Amino acid sequence: MADLVVLARDGGRPAGPPPLPPAAAGQPAGPVEVDRTVGNSGCVSLGQHLVLAAEILAGRRVGVRVDTHTLSFFDLETRELLRTRPNPLIPAQVARLRSARPAGPPPQPSTRPVRVQRRASNSGGVMVAGQKVALGRIHARKTITIDVTATELAVHCDDGTRIIRRTTSQAVTQIKAHRPRIRHGDREDSQGPSRRQHTGKINP
């Protein structure tokens, strides 16, 4: 109350109507958030919509901030931004979302690199976030660790770390390296040497 007295003494006056128009009936007054578990296909359910978050988030509990045109998927503990997607919901559908709450501050992307692994091809090449990187045949079929940022790839090889400028803006969708494919000619007989035997006649 004392603060109000001081404001009135210094020229304060009763407030008028809010500068923004009130939200229409049945529509949210601003951004909202919901918690959802990402399905095995990388999707979450929002009302009548099945929205792709990312396959890499499958099985993870995430927050979803619903803005007018954008869905922001974020980590519930750190509010780290994980993915953004277009918002397919109309305001009336947003107002009916299960367990919706007023949104907190906008999630922010992490400044830490994303560490991934890739299995080099027979020619010594790897691909990460849609970008091909040639390492040389000396690294063929090796598992390579790569730190990915928005601007660089730090490729950790046996002969040192190579810093490569990123040429794509694709998000990382795979963390672990695939198992190498074993060609038929490379497969070893688990029973030992070949069982093929000489079929010619043997003199007594």
The helix content, as a percent range, equals under 10%
Tell me how many strands there are: 14
Q: Gap between N and C termini, in Å? A: 120 Å
Strand coverage percent: 25-35%
Give the ordered list of helices and strands.
Answer: HEEEEEEHEEEEEEEE
Query: Pairing-aware structural class of the strands and helices?
Result: mainly beta
Oligomer: single chain
Report low-confidence residues grouped into runs of 5 or more: 182-204
What does this entry look like structurally?
It is built from two helices and 14 strands. The strands form four sheets. Strands 7-1-4-5-6-8 form a six-stranded mixed sheet, with no helix packed on it. A four-stranded antiparallel sheet has the order 9-12-13-14, with no helix packed on it. Strands 2-3 form a two-stranded antiparallel sheet. The model is unreliable at 182-204 (pLDDT under 50). By secondary structure, it is mainly beta. The termini are far apart. The protein is elongated and about 75 Å long.
Fold blueprint:
Elements: H1 2-9, E1 32-37, E2 43-46, E3 49-52, E4 61-66, E5 70-74, E6 80-86, H2 91-95, E7 101-102, E8 108-109, E9 114-119, E10 125-128, E11 131-134, E12 143-148, E13 152-157, E14 160-165
Parallel strand pairs: 6-8
Antiparallel strand pairs: 1-4, 1-7, 2-3, 4-5, 5-6, 9-12, 10-11, 12-13, 13-14
